[in-house]
């Protein structure tokens, strides 16, 4: 076995997710997975979460929420 430390340099293809993001996203990956474009309760609950994330992200970068797009 070599003594070399492995490092990943292709972060333009993928990046590690901050543990705080993983923690915040877990409910939406395991139990709250409604379609945010739907008009039913499950979708509207998720729409509220997306809108909140958009507002918080915009505030972090000094932008308006309607200028933040999630792809």
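-> sequence recovered:
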């Amino acid at each position: 076995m070599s003594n070399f430390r492995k490092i990943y340099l292709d972060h333009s293809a993928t990046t590690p997710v901050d543990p705080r993001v993983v923690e915040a996203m877990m409910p939406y990956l395991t139990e709250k997975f409604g379609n945010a474009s739907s008009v039913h309760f499950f979708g509207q609950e998720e729409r509220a979460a997306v809108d909140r994330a958009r507002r918080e992200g915009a505030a972090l970068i000094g932008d308006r929420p309607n200028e933040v797009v999630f792809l």
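The chain has a mean pLDDT of 90.
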